[in-house]
Amino acid sequence: MADDIRPFTIAVPDDDVDDLRRRLATTRWPDQIPGSGWDYGCDLAWLQDLAGHWADGYDWRTAEAELNAFDHITTEIDGQNLHAIHQRSPHDDALPLLLSHGWPGSVVEFLDLIGPLTDPAAHGGDATDAFHVIVPSLPGYGWSGSTTERGWGVGRTAEAFAALAARLGYDRYGVQGGDWGSMISRHMAQVDPDHVVGCHVNMMAAGPAGNDDDFTDITPLEQQVMDRLNWYLAEDNGYFRIQETRPQTLGTGLNDSPAGLLSWIGEKFHGWTDHDG
C-alpha cells in the first residue's frame, strides 16, 4: 500500500501570490466606531497594520522553503486527499507519533517541534526519546484540500488518520492533539486501540454528567472554569455557530477576501493568546 503514498512539495504559483497582494491592496475597509477597539470584533487599525505586513513585509517564499525543509506526502483515504508532514527520526526504533491540529490552525503550529521530537540528541535530549513524526492536515485544511462530501467530522477524520498511520507502515504509534486535534486523538485511541499505545491532549472538555445537583460541591477553581465557559458560550462563541451551521455562506466572503479571512482568524489569535507578553 506504500505505492499509494506520493511525495509532495509546496509550490504556490507566483500568480496566486500576486493576486493576494492585489486583493489586500484594494481592500474596501469598513468603518469603526471611534474608541470601540475590540468590543465588536477585530480592531480596524490592528487589522490594517497586519494586512499591510502581509502584503509588503511577509515573505511567502521564505516560509514556503521552511515548510519544504520537511518531508511531505499526499495520499487518498476514504475518497479524500490527505496531506501530511512525515518526518522519520534518524533512530530507526523511534516510536511513531501522530500530531493533530485544530482551528484556527495548521501543520505550521508543529514545525518547531519536529526537530526536537525526531532527533532529541541534537537538541540536548536523549536519543531514546525520539519519535517518527506524522503531522496531517485535517480534511478541508491546507494541502489536504476541500472535502467533497458530507460527513467529515471527528470520527471519520480519526479513522482516516488511523488508516494513514497503517499505510505508512506503523503497527504501533502515539497520538497528540489540541482543539479539534484533541477530539480526533481521543477518538483514534478508541477506534484503533490495538495500535495506539498512548494519547496526549492539551484540551480536555469534561464536566459533571448528571443533574444540577452535581454542581453544588465544585471547588472555587472549578467555578472559575465554569464562569469562563459560560462567558465563552454567551460572548465568544458566535464564530462557532456560524461555521457549524452556515459554512457555505461564510466561505463566499472569506474565500474571496484575504482581509476578511485575516480578520476572522486574526481576532481569534489575538483573543486566545498571550500576545502582550
Q: What can you see in these coordinates?
A:
The chain has helices spanning 14-25, 44-56, 60-68, 111-118, 154-167, 180-191, 220-235, 238-245, 247-256, 258-271, and strands spanning 6-8, 72-77, 80-87, 95-100, 131-136, 173-177, 196-201. A 7-stranded mixed sheet has the order 1-2-3-5-4-6-7, sandwiched between helices. With 277 residues, it is of the alpha/beta class. Helix 4 (111-118) links the parallel strand 4 (95-100) and strand 5 (131-136). The chain has a domain at 70-205: Alpha/Beta hydrolase fold, catalytic domain (Rossmann fold, 3-Layer(aba) Sandwich), CATH 3.40.50. Helix 1 runs antiparallel to helix 2 and helix 9 packs across helix 10. The longest helix is centred in the C-terminal third of the chain and has 16 residues, at 220-235. 42% of the residues lie in helices and 14% in strands.
In brief, what are we looking at here?
This protein is α/β, with parallel strands linked by helices. The chain is 42% helix and 14% strand. It has a domain at 70-205: Alpha/Beta hydrolase fold, catalytic domain (Rossmann fold), CATH 3.40.50.
